[in-house]
Amino acid sequence: MGSCFVENIGRKLEYFKFRNSLNPFGILFHPSAIRAFLENVRSKKRFSEEDIFYHNEAWHFFGAHSDLNSSDKGEILERLNAAVEETAEFLRAATHIIITPGTAWGYRLRESGKVVANCHKVPQKNFSKELLEVKEDLVRCVEIVKELNPSAAIIFTVSPVRHIKDGFLENQQSKAKLISAIHEIVAEQSNTEYFPSYEVMMDELRDYRFYAEDMVHPNEVAIDYIWERFRETWISAEAGQVMKKIDSIQKGLSHRPFNEASAAHQKFKEDLQKKIEEIETGHPHIRF
User: Fold this and answer.
1) Contact at 8 Å (CB) between 79 and 68?
2) Residue by residue, what is the 3-state secondary structure of 89-124?
3) Closest CA to 134 of 169, 184, 96, 98
4) SS3 label, residue 190
5) For the residues 66-75, what does the mean pLDDT come to?
6) According to the model, what pLDDT value does residue 5 have?
7) By C-alpha distance, which of 86, 59, 82, 79 is closest to 71?
8) What tens digit of pLDDT does each residue of 228-261 get?
């Protein structure tokens, strides 16, 4: 859970058929937003109309990304409550929890005094922008995860996406606060680790050919490179062998033949189906 970089790693996990839950409240950049989400999961929060607001012909919740917005009040409440319930169930069974904050800059709603996850295009005058201390929020995230699932490993990583709109110096200040706080937590807390995705992007991939057109987000080459570093660190050799078979199947499923009726293609389909059946038999949770 966390920044948009979580989505990149999450798609890799989905491709290789790992059971995962990806940002149930949508992208959350700030540790305060991640903490607030986990607090809601811990307390089994049931959202009601008083938690949401209507703006620009849609209903919103300041604690979630716009992906959960809806023009229908009942629909957004259903999405919020379902996300909390599903996350609570998933957290209790998960072996690893990845938390990826993106920034220490937060937007505080003047009316309530609370830091929001998303401003939802509400006029800027309603917020104050602040560079916040983040350690307390991240420590609380660890406490909640351990309460729900004491055996889960917690992997922290800082998003390699630079928040240039905050300013170059301001982005560096923000990332430094996140990295410093996380390293302190990892030194103090059991079952916590740090994966250096930000450092890999900044140091090993420090050329602009590894960036997307916006010159801010990592491109597919960079994402694949960081994923390989993650796989080498966190995924066992045994699981790696299964991943190779799944990769072969996924590529087979995406194959587009010149002649679907040919004998060669029919043989290809039969072989592919055998591979699928072998994987699904050995790993019943996997379905293609």
Assistant:
1) yes
2) HHHHHCCEEEEECCCCEEEEECCCCCEECCCCCCCH
3) 184
4) coil
5) 97
6) 84
7) 59
8) 999 999 999 999 999 999 999 999 999 998 998 9
